[in-house]
Design goal:
Blueprint: E1 7-17, E2 26-34, E3 38-42, H1 49-55, E4 65-72, E5 75-76, H2 82-88, E6 89-92, H3 96-99, H4 105-115, H5 120-133, H6 149-161, E7 167-171, H7 179-196, E8 199-203, H8 207-210, E9 216-221, E10 224-228, H9 230-239, H10 250-257, H11 267-274, E11 294-303, E12 313-321, E13 325-329, H12 336-343, E14 351-356, E15 370-373, H13 386-396, H14 401-414, H15 419-422, H16 431-443, E16 449-453, H17 461-476, E17 480-484, H18 488-494, E18 497-502, E19 505-511, H19 512-518, H20 525-530, H21 539-546
Helix pairs in contact: 4-5, 4-6, 6-7, 9-10, 13-14, 13-16, 14-16
């Protein structure tokens, strides 16, 4: 087919307001999504990305006041009947577990088609094709709950594609995946776009993996949407000093700052471009470990969930010093969350010892006050508003009314909780806002040891930076922080030391700079970009090496 691509979706002055909300989350959005294009949407946490994406899927549209016109192929989207919507508009959610509805992989692949009344022969044929295309054939007879996070998300994608949709909408589909699983998922998504011309509408924080494929990059800010090519959008973000500029990959930031045409987008383009640049020989000093005694010692710890099951952790040993920030990295299923549950006292190892301040598990709670933020912050919520959650948390911490008011003001400031957010039900917050609210609740107890399970899940780059600064303040004041994360950039910025969990125990444990420079896959985009040229591990280090004087970043 020739000519210009056709507009699949058209938004005309679209606005949306949640019930009882003082302000609209989307105010006046006018844009078009062209058929066959790959579109990426980014924005700060709470900007309305999830709300906007759900408007494109009528069955998922949230309850509230919708204004303006949203057209699908020139007709009102609301006029599309349920069967056509299910077939033509596919949607993949953030959580791999929330979309799976059956117990077997083969049944999940066929479930959507079965619901439309498709013949069994077609269901079987389509399932066979999809299983081969997505590499799921060896898993066909597996129980869905036994799959890894990456496998579950691939299954969700395959199940949606069974319907042969015209457009595929994905809401941060790699948020809960490790770097390797995320890269695999997004490469499959790119292949789908190239092989079938499926229109893609994707919100994603790992922009370095998707921007090389993107036709358009949209930014949602202040309830409005703007976008264009990656180069055009990056330049506008730079000129307007928008916080989202820091979310862009290192190569894009560097190329935009130096006004390179065309701007490098992929790692390969960035490396070729960097070879032509003059880089400073700045030496970045390594982290100096504390000379004191460790606050936490994990010695030969082993754990399994069932007597006849393989060990999740086996002979796991490492130490964390008082006042340092320590990061645990590893693939989905490597045991990071399990280890945090052992350290917090929620579970006990079947062998080995965990010491906190030199004390064994039976009396460690008496020696060190600790708090643990779970991967799902909703597990901590039980009240009607965020303000009530904080008041209740302050009471549990034993604070007086005066101290509680003072501490609540402090943690609200630290965690960027506005009066508007305080008045909302915790479940009505965005994923990033829930993370911040849950962290604020834990901070009210002033813990000596803070355990965080994927603390940046759902957070935008500006708040990640704020959280990094906050953790550094905590450690400078004597608090010890241990967190697990799939976010390489955050680990590089926040952690003093890192450990990589593999086969039940740390395969590598050392200072953060050495950690990322040694790794090929569990490393930052900056290391991939600059390897062999300069020992940068963070984007700001690269930009400082490229620019000097008043232009230094």
């Amino acid at each position: 087919m020739g000519g210009d691509p056709m507009a699949l979706f058209i938004l005309e002055e679209v606005g949306f307001t949640y019930p009882s909300a003082e302000r609209a989350v989307l105010s006046s959005i006018s844009a078009s999504i062209e058929s066959g294009t790959f579109n990426v949407i980014c924005g700060v946490s709470g900007s309305g990305k999830t709300t906007l994406l759900r408007l494109f899927k009528p069955s998922l549209t949230p309850h509230g006041s919708l204004r303006g016109a949203l057209l699908f192929e020139g007709k009102p989207l609301s006029a599309l009947d349920a069967k056509e919507e299910a077939r033509r508009i596919g949607f993949v959610q953030q959580s791999p577990d929330r979309q799976i509805v059956t117990d077997k992989v083969w049944h999940e692949l066929a479930f959507g088609l079965e619901c439309t009344g498709a013949p069994k022969e077609l269901c079987r044929l389509r399932s066979a094709e999809l299983a081969d295309y997505f590499g799921l054939t060896p898993l066909l007879h597996r129980d869905t709950h036994t799959l890894s996070g990456g496998q579950k998300q691939l299954l969700n994608l395959a199940s949606v594609m069974a319907m042969e949709p015209d457009v595929l909408i994905l809401d941060e589909p790699t948020a809960q995946l490790d770097p390797i699983a995320a890269a695999e998922f997004l490469s499959v998504l790119s292949r789908l776009h190239r092989d079938f011309g499926t229109t893609i509408l994707l919100s994603e924080h790992r922009l370095e993996l998707v921007l090389p494929e993107a036709d358009r990059l949209f930014v949602l800010s202040g309830g409005t949407l703007f976008g264009g090519s990656v180069t055009e959008t990056a330049r506008r973000l730079m000129e307007e000093k928008d916080l989202m500029f820091d979310e862009l990959p290192a190569a894009v930031q560097a190329g935009t700052l130096l006004r390179t045409e065309p701007c490098p987008v992929s790692v390969a383009q960035g490396r070729a471009w960097l070879e032509k640049q003059t880089l400073s020989t700045t030496l970045f000093p390594p982290y100096q470990a504390s000379a004191g005694k460790p606050l936490l010692i994990c010695r030969n710890v082993s754990f399994t969930y069932a007597a006849d099951a393989a060990d999740v952790l086996h002979d796991c040993s490492f130490s964390v010093y008082s006042g340092e920030c320590f990061a645990l990295l590893g693939a989905n299923g490597s045991g990071k969350s399990t280890l945090l549950s052992l350290l917090s006292g929620q579970r006990s190892p079947y062998s080995g010892t965990i010491l906190l301040n030199g004390r064994k598990p039976a009396d460690r709670r008496q020696s060190v006050s600790l708090a643990c933020l779970p991967q799902d912050p909703q597990l901590l919520f039980s009240r009607e508003t965020v303000a009530e959650e904080l008041t209740h948390a302050a009471k549990r911490a034993g604070l007086s009314k005066e101290d509680a008011e003072r501490r609540i003001r402090t943690v609200c400031s630290d965690c960027a909780l506005s009066d508007t957010l305080l008045s909302m039900h915790p479940y009505d917050l965005s994923g990033g806002e829930q993370q911040r609210a849950a962290l604020a609740m834990l901070l009210l107890s002033s813990p000596e040891l803070l355990l965080l399970d994927e603390p940046t899940k759902g957070l935008d780059t500006p708040y990640k930076k704020a959280l990094c600064t906050l953790l550094k303040q905590f450690t400078q004041n004597g608090m010890t922080v241990l967190f697990s994360s799939h976010d390489m950039e955050f680990c590089a910025a926040a952690a003093d030391r890192c450990a990589l969990l593999f086969d039940g125990s740390p395969a590598l444990c050392c200072d953060t700079r050495s950690f990322f420079l040694q790794n090929r896959f569990y490393t930052t985009q900056t290391v991939r970009l600059t390897r062999g040229q300069i020992d940068c591990i963070k984007t700001n280090e690269l930009l400082s090496s490229l620019k000097t004087g008043e232009d230094a970043v």
